[in-house]
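During the reporting period the student researcher (J.K.) took over the structure-prediction task from the postdoctoral fellow and processed the backlog of single-chain submissions. One of the processed entries is reproduced below for the supervisory committee.
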Amino acid sequence: VQLQASGGGLVQAGGSLRLSCAASRSPVSSYVMGWFRRAPGKEREFVAGISRSGFQTFHAESVKGRFAISRDNSKNTVYLQMNSLKPEDTAVYYCAAQRSFSDVRVPTRGYDYWGQGTQVTVSS
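J.K. obtained the following structure tokens:
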């Protein structure tokens, strides 16, 4: 599967953005999907994940209640709606995929395929 992330940009604190991750070469319905981010000088961290059908989601504590992951398998696309953005959300955001036979499990690591990243900058 190939992944293409988009939707990043510059936004003021308190604003919103929606990231998209378009999959190609393979149906995204075969994969658990996740969003990660890497802030300057920091390690890459898990942000959110969603099971194959969207039945299960899991969000990191740092974004819970502000971010929401979703997917539209008919469009081969996964989304990350980001609300109430904070300067500490500034990072390059990556979407990732992990082939899975489960529609319950949402891992926070072990993803096999990665998109190229999209920059999100939140100004104070």
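The committee noted the following: The chain has a mean pLDDT of 96.
J.K. will present the remaining backlog at the next meeting.
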